[in-house]
Amino acid sequence: MAIIMETRDFGKTPDNKGIQLYTMKNSRGMEAAVINLGAILVSLKVPDAAGKKTDVVLGLERGEDYLHNGSVFGAVVGPHANRIGGAAYELDGVTYQLAPNDNGNNLHSDFAEGYQARIWNAEVLADGVRFSLEDTDGHLGFPGNRTVQITYTLDEENGLQLHYHATSDRRTIFNLTNHSYFNLEGHDAGSIEGHSLWLKAAQYTPVVAGAIPTGEIASVQGTPMDFTTEKVVGKEIHADFTQLQLTGGYDHNYVIDGADGSLQHIATVKAPKSGRVMEVYTTLPGVQFYAGNFIGRQVGKDGTVYDKRHGLCLETQFYPDSIHHDNFPSCVFGPDDAYDSVTVYRFL
Fold first, then answer.
1. Which residues are catalytic?
2. Nearest Cα to 47, choosing from 24, 27, 33, 19?
């Protein structure tokens, strides 16, 4: 059966631009809804083992609410997701200054004008939506006139694919990700500490205060950071371990074993009550596992009150602050080297 596509109004921006909601539905009862503001995934409804359909991503009630999306629920973040130390970097002999919006560092490029806050152009496809935008040379501290696309597609195997493609007429840095918070028991189910997680990652990148990587690539073996064997998220999240204390729990980049640019199964999340299982696939070299340690108490969809650790993120990406570490995979792209990546969230 074909994917069913629906479009409706979802609000307006202060300058009267329309916020549109695009919903994809497959024959197995899975639905994904995205908007042209921030290319945000606002809803992901997935049946459980008994066929009960529940929304498993945290989000907000109206399009206008996403204009003040401090937790970056569901958004496509760019040009550079995650952190850049000192809110500056050098590329080809030029120093570029960024917004010092996170304890003197840069986080997620810019909360007011980053891709997560922009209205994207939208093209409805047979099985999804392609969002695109253009960004000008030097905007927010990133060189190059850039064109960026993110294509969401839904399939009949309960997979939501995110295909990113970006080009630039000058060498620049791209680190694009989706910042969805998952709770496989339901977005309104409270803590995710009972979820279990497996990561295809025997190493991670330790951080200093401010969550900036030291440059070391460290083994997870024998530490609370180890998810190479499936483990309950809350089992060691409160451990007396410096890395967890620095970030209030898990908020670290994991180094994907054998990353070579091919699409690989890199994570599995399981919810004990509903029985839902989510597999994550990506072509990228890293994944930021964030346990929602700093979700501020707030009202979300359906009047639900969200709070600390009510959702977890698996943000596929290049390593944070990679522009400052030659031993990290490079996130520099240019006229002869387009950025292209694929991530899939698949529900069993």
1. 179, 315
2. 27
